[in-house]
Amino acid sequence: MSDDVLVLHSGGTIGMVDTPAGHAPVAGALRPYLDWMVEQSRGELPPITFLELDPPIDSANATPENWCAIARILYERRQDHRGFVVLHGTDTMAYTSSALSFLLPSFGRPVIVTGSQIPIIRTRSDGRQNLIGALQVAASSDVDEVTLLFGEVLLRGNRATKIDASGLDAFDSPRFPPVAEIGIDITVNRGLIRPTEGQPRLIEGPLGTVAAVRLFPGFSASILANLCRPPLQGLILEAYGAGNGPSDDQGFLAAIDAATSQGIVVVVVTQCLHGSVQPGAYAAGSALLRAGAVPGFDMTSEAALTKLAVLLGQGLDTGTVAEMMQHDIAGELTRQA
After folding, report:
1. Was 90 annotated as part of a binding site?
2. Quick check: is 329 in a domain?
3. How far is CA 143 from CA 2, 59, 82, 257, 312, in A?
4. Catalytic annotation present for 49
5. b/e code 201-221 from CB counts within 10 Å (16+ = b)
6. What is the mean pLDDT of each run of 10 residues along the chain (337 residues)?
7. How many domains does the chain have?
8. In the listed set 133, 161, 192, which residue is the last one of a domain according to the structure?
9. Is the peptide bond before 177 cis (omega within 30 degrees of 0)?
10. 101 belongs to an annotated ligand binding site
11. CA torsion sign, 91 to 186 to 75 to 30?
12. 125 among annotated binding-site residues
């Protein structure tokens, strides 16, 4: 195994240049800057191997196929590099970091997903410090799991969510502490590091067909009924508070019952930034579970959706998937006693 770090540029703002239509990713634009940055670091940064998706994409165009492609590249090169940095757009970064945590069980290497709010070629870019931090964590730490580095924090990849469209501290992990803090030193909270168990595997696509829907006052049962049709296999229901929904709406409950009866796995998560779904805490939440939905506890919507897609893609029966959605498999969930 080499001591270098593989930098995989999937796209995103960090490598964008100005075009007549606005910022856009351009193949080859980032490599010269990275080489210069490592050269100027006087040995403070590890040597790198650079790869780029062809073509690099704006993360708003990311698909599950992209998640699988990135996972495959990392898995195939696992033995060749000390660590891995995935450069990615911020819009869907938390989806990708979550997906990679499920697609690469027991990977046993640091995988750091990062990017920027300002293109790295700009003077005030946050991308420079994010990339430096990611390279140093990938090269010298024992954080052998998928993480997301942005600003001054290193977050577990399947616990992160984007909280700011334009600020430089764009990501947070409201329901789980940061794995490390990036300051004068990189301070790792070793008690939070998930131990690697078992042999590394790659879970191949295609993934299951899933969707997410957010409840709101006046939500029509017909929306849910129309959504829960083939080819849909799983649904993330972003409910109120501790997992509540319109329990007085019999049409809504009937739509959930119909969906689960035809084999669609319905998982309830909370819309709130903090907290968890609490089964049985409120009658309005219990009604959803009686209709066949299962609680996602404190999973983020991004983690729940990608986990559900990965599990359904493995051909497991729906009962097994529903049960696994209620248990931690990659550090994504804290189940209350």
Report:
1. yes
2. no
3. 18, 25, 11, 42, 28
4. no
5. eebebebbebbbbebeeeeeb
6. 91 87 81 88 90 92 97 97 97 99 97 96 90 94 94 98 96 98 94 93 96 97 95 98 97 98 98 96 95 98 99 97 98 84
7. 2
8. 192
9. no
10. no
11. positive
12. no
